[in-house]
Specification:
It contains 9 helices and 10 strands. The protein is of the alpha/beta class. It has a single domain, classed as Metal-dependent hydrolases (TIM Barrel). InterPro entries: Metal_Hydrolase, TatD-like.
């Protein structure tokens, strides 16, 4: 069994999803209430899906706070809160509103004992500060490309980072993989995302694993064993 810790599964056709989950356990993130509802429905239909609900920081200016009330009704069926977070790189103009929404999600994660699946370009320090202050038990910093000197602090709080399948073309992901201890690494595709001419999809975690194993100097079976353990601890599967 392979593991993808962050995919927008709701954007794929059902036929592709059925194909993916035959060999991959997938943490499916959401972008808003409609996608959160579809994610929950998918998890009720297919095995090997860990459903996350949330509002992506790129969408906070497109929805009202009433959407949070709708999402609240889905919490009992969710196993994760995401994709949520802060983004200073791509949407700095909505940062204050992002913080308002993110604090709600962080409180949900703490109160309901759910892990966070976090988006944080150029806001890695901000996010870690908010999450640790709220005493959240589990968090994944997805597609981590942040400061290398923050990795150990993330680990100290028992949190994880995921390395994207874009590692095949992104040097920063290779640097992060070299510097990050195995006991906090997960893999992801963030599919279906277009990055430098590549359409990222869940099966690409297999190639990413081969690259990470080579960079870490470990066997591929040992790497997947570590990934499986990390995935199980974070998402309680």
């Amino acid at each position: 069994m392979l593991y993808d810790a962050h995919t927008h599964l709701h954007e794929f056709l059902d036929s592709r999803i059925a194909e993916f989950v035959r060999e991959i356990t997938i943490t499916a993130v959401s972008d808003d209430y409609p996608s959160s509802k579809r994610t929950i429905d998918l998890a009720n239909t297919y095995e090997n899906i860990v459903p996350c609900i949330g509002i992506h920081p790129w969408n906070v200016d497109k929805v009202g706070l009433d959407e949070l009330k709708q999402l609240d009704k889905l919490i009992s069926e969710a196993r994760c809160i995401g994709e949520v977070g802060l983004d200073r790189r791509f949407v700095p103009q909505t940062f204050s509103r992002q913080v308002e929404f993110f604090r709600v999600f962080v409180n949900w994660a703490r109160d309901y004992g759910l892990p966070l699946n976090i988006h944080a370009p150029d806001a890695w320090v901000d996010v870690l500060e908010i999450v640790r202050r709220a005493d959240v038990d589990g968090a994944l910093f997805h597609w981590y490309t942040g400061p290398l000197n923050l990795i150990q602090e993330i680990r100290d709080y028992g949190y994880y980072i995921s390395i994207n399948a874009a590692i095949k073309v992104q040097e920063k992901s290779r640097v992060v993989a070299r510097e990050t201890p195995l006991d906090m690494i997960l893999l992801e595709s963030d599919g279906p995302y277009e990055y430098r001419g590549i359409t990222l999809e869940p099966p690409m975690v297999k190639e990413a694993a081969n690259i990470v194993a080579q960079l870490k100097g470990v066997g591929i079976d040992n790497l997947w064993e570590s990934i499986a353990n990390n995935f199980s601890r974070l998402f309680r599967v």
